Amino acid sequence: MLECVINISEGKDPEKLVLLAEALGADLLDLHSDADHNRSVFTLAGTDSARILAREALNLFNIGAHAGVHPRVGIVDVVPFVALEPSTFEDALQARNEFAHFAANELGVPCFVYGPERTLPYIRKHAFVDLLPDFGSAMPHPTAGAICVGVRPILIAYNIWLKDSTLEMAKQISALLRSDSVRALGLQVGSSAQVSMNLIDFAVTGPQQVYDIVAQHAPIERAELVGLVPARALANVPRSRWDELDLSAEKTIESALAARNRKLAS
User: Residue 158: which region, alpha, beta or left (left: phi > 0; alpha: psi -120 to 50)?
Assistant: First the structure.
């Protein structure tokens, strides 16, 4: 089984997001949208739904009309494939390359790949500057931009909203958090400052650890899980802290896959 966690550069139009969700059926495991980021994260099961979502999103949205605080290179901005047991990294790598070929040749959208070759932050810094797409045209698509197609292990996308703090403070905290296991950005989200993170090795640094580090430097308004977590990420977190950390058994990949299987069997 492969998981695909597609980031779409649209979070302000709920009616169109509902249309996308309906097109995905039971393969949609989770949908998280944020109007200030102007971004939506679709967690999908399998590979067919990834192609459906990409095609439909390109028909609905125009990157030229997009504004939001999150970095992006296109409407279908990030398409990472993640191997869930019993699938392997090689399965995910093959799915990545097949999707990039599909997007470039059938949708006409150039694709940059990340994984063993380079990181996603490297693409964001170098795309169309001194790095050309791996698939498709050397120029961005006029309405879709480009797509970053990747293969990666399971990670946790996690935001912490600061209370009565500045963007500068969020940036300072983000710099303190960055490591081999945490990628972090300080962002101004509406009237609030936010520390936006990818916990890329949550066995080393998980939601509880980053929350407690942030709390040492600024008051916290709330924590926010983006998407799903593996059940094992909850194992070392006291249940008494789950609400504070925006965690629950219902927000695990395993729970979402079980719900999908029930839908398919009914």
Answer: beta
Query: Domain spans of the chain?
Result: 2-151, 156-256
What is the third-level CATH fold of 2-151?
Answer: Formiminotransferase-cyclodeaminase; Chain B, domain 1 (3.30.990)
Please name the fold of domain 156-256.
Alpha-Beta Plaits (3.30.70)
**Residue bearing tokens 């194992």:** 235
Structure confidence by residue, pLDDT tens digits, 190-245: 889 999 999 999 999 999 999 999 999 999 999 999 999 999 999 989 999 999 99
39, β-bridge pairs: 34
**pLDDT tens digits, one per residue of 138-148:** 999 999 999 99
Strand ranges (E), the chain = 2-8, 28-34, 39-45, 76-83, 111-114, 147-151, 156-162, 182-189, 192-199, 220-226
